[in-house]
């Protein structure tokens, strides 16, 4: 099954012994495009500190009705890493390094929030911007991009497989893709309701390769 990252922002995070806070952002490894941390903004019990929680700590199948449950206690979360432990590099830094990633930081971590809005460049133009990411909820790999098209019907958003991304120029906030603007425009349309849980707990649909033309 697949989930849209934006639909997960604001989800509650619950430890074994009580609620922790809400999901504020995600960090992914830009070498393999997999989510490695959920960034959780804690409640008043921890003065709004932002902590890092690995997806491997989530209880599978428990993320219904806008809540994630983890196999951690609140004390373990307090004593775990916070956002300053693995801070990603600045988006405008040409070459990431340990120095500009922050103390103890990982240079290959990227914020999903920070890359939202990146320009999409095709071989024949710049037809849109990145608006969301779609992940496989079992593996937490990023599988698809959601692109908001320019010069189309107002608000039209389409889905592009990650494999079509040729290069990411982080210092320019730009993604280069291998397909033409017309092919991108004709890609499957994104419908948010297909990639988020409804109030009744219905699961999102699963993407099929048949959805994309060769």
List the helices and strands and how they pair.
Blueprint: E1 2-4, H1 5-8, E2 12-15, E3 18-29, E4 34-42, E5 50-53, E6 67-69, H2 74-78, H3 98-101, E7 109-111, H4 112-115, E8 119-122, E9 125-136, E10 142-149, E11 157-161, E12 165-169, E13 174-177, H5 181-185
Parallel strand pairs: 2-6, 8-13
Antiparallel strand pairs: 1-9, 2-3, 3-4, 3-7, 4-5, 8-9, 9-10, 10-11, 12-13
What does this structure look like?
The chain is mostly beta strands. It is about 10% helix and about 35% strand. The chain has helices at about 5-10, 75-80, 100, 110-115, 180-185; strands at about 1-5, 10-15, 20-30, 35-40, 50-55, 65-70, 110, 120, 125-135, 140-150, 155-160, 165-170, 175. Strands 1, 8, 9, 10, 11, 12 and 13 form a seven-stranded mixed sheet that branches. Strands 2, 3, 4, 5, 6 and 7 form a six-stranded mixed sheet that branches. The longest helix is centred in the middle third of the chain and has 5 residues, at about 75-80. The protein is elongated and about 55 Å long. The protein starts with a strand and ends in a 29-residue tail after the last helix. Residues about 90-105 have low confidence and may be disordered.
């Amino acid at each position: 099954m697949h989930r849209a990252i934006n639909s997960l922002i604001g989800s509650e995070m619950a430890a074994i012994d009580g609620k922790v806070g809400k999901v504020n952002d995600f960090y992914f490894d830009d070498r393999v495009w997999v989510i490695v941390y959920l960034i959780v903004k804690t409640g008043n019990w921890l003065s709004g500190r932002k902590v890092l929680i690995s997806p491997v700590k989530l209880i599978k199948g428990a993320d219904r009705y806008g809540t994630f449950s983890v196999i951690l206690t609140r004390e373990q979360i307090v004593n775990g890493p916070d956002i300053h432990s693995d801070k990603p590099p600045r988006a405008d830094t040409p070459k990431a390094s340990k120095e500009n990633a922050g103390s103890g930081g990982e240079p290959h971590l990227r914020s999903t929030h920070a890359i939202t809005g990146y320009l999409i460049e095709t071989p024949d133009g710049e037809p849109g911007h990145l608006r969301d990411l779609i992940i496989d909820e079992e593996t937490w790999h990023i599988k698809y991009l959601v692109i908001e098209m320019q010069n189309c019907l107002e608000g039209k958003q389409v889905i592009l497989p990650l494999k079509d991304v040729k290069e990411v120029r982080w210092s320019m906030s730009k993604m280069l893709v291998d397909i033409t603007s017309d092919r991108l425009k004709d890609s499957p349309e994104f419908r948010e309701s297909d990639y988020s849980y409804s109030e009744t707990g219905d699961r999102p649909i699963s993407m099929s390769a048949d959805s994309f033309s060769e």
